[in-house]
């Protein structure tokens, strides 16, 4: 996978609009403002591949980015309270439709803000991934925002807060320092090579 070949493909606001899978899809999932767009930009070493917003809930579409023989797929952030019920329902249909439709999903990177315990929505998503036996890894974002002692405490907390923690691949990530970007790239490469 040559990260220089990464390009934005399309955004889809309704599940029915998404064309059938034609190559391996690596999915980025997480709550609003967890840093999915920043992570995608860092992993592909581009400043503006994915649009970053300081406003939570900005990504209301599923965004596809092509890179050689994989797609990086950015799901809308969940858990943002200040949107209408109908919009929440649309997001739910979009995300659930995408994840349960038998697409060629190689792996889900489930992003969780390292500074906080997983939200109820995060835990629902993790339960779904475990129950559906979908391959996934947990990425703890905003790693640079914690002092070493706080970080150690949060990592200890996650071990008891996240179900099946000892069996899950975890990566600490910072869009500021680049920590974890190479590891994520390397995992994506494995799927690209096997595709």
Walk me through the structure:
There is one protein chain. The chain is of the alpha/beta class and 195 residues long. The protein has helices at residues 36-43, 85-99, 120-131, 148-161, 181-194, and strands at residues 7-12, 24-30, 62-67, 70-74, 105-113, 136-141, 169-172. The chain has one domain: P-loop containing nucleotide triphosphate hydrolases (Rossmann fold), CATH 3.40.50.300. It is 32% helix and 22% strand. A 7-stranded mixed β-sheet has the order 1-3-4-2-5-6-7, with helices on both faces. α3 (120-131) links the parallel β5 and β6. The mean pLDDT is 87.
Class from helix and strand fractions: alpha/beta
N-to-C span: 10 Å
Give a quick account of the main beta sheet: strands, pairing sense, barrel closure: 7 strands, mixed
How are helices and strands ordered from N to C? EEHEEHEHEHEH
CATH topology: Rossmann fold
Low-confidence region ranges: none
């Amino acid at each position: 996978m040559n990260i220089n070949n990464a390009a934005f493909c399309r955004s889809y606001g309704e599940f029915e609009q998404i064309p059938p899978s034609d190559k391996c899809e690596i999915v980025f999932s997480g709550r609003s403002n967890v840093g999915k767009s920043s992570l995608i930009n860092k992993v592909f070493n581009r400043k503006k591949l994915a649009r970053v917003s300081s406003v939570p809930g900005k990504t209301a579409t599923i965004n596809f980015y092509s890179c050689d023989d994989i797609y990086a797929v950015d799901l809308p952030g969940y858990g943002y309270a200040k949107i209408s019920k109908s919009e929440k329902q649309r997001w739910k249909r979009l995300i659930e439709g995408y994840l349960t439709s038998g697409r060629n999903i190689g792996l889900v990177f489930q992003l969780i803000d390292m500074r906080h315990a997983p939200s109820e929505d995060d835990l629902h998503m993790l339960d779904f991934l475990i129950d559906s036996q979908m391959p996934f890894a947990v990425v703890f974002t905003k790693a640079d925002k914690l002092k070493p002692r706080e970080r150690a405490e949060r990592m200890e907390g996650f071990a008891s807060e996240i179900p099946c923690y000892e069996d899950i691949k975890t990566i600490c990530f910072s869009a500021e320092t680049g920590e974890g970007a190479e590891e994520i790239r390397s995992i994506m490469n494995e799927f690209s090579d096997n595709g």
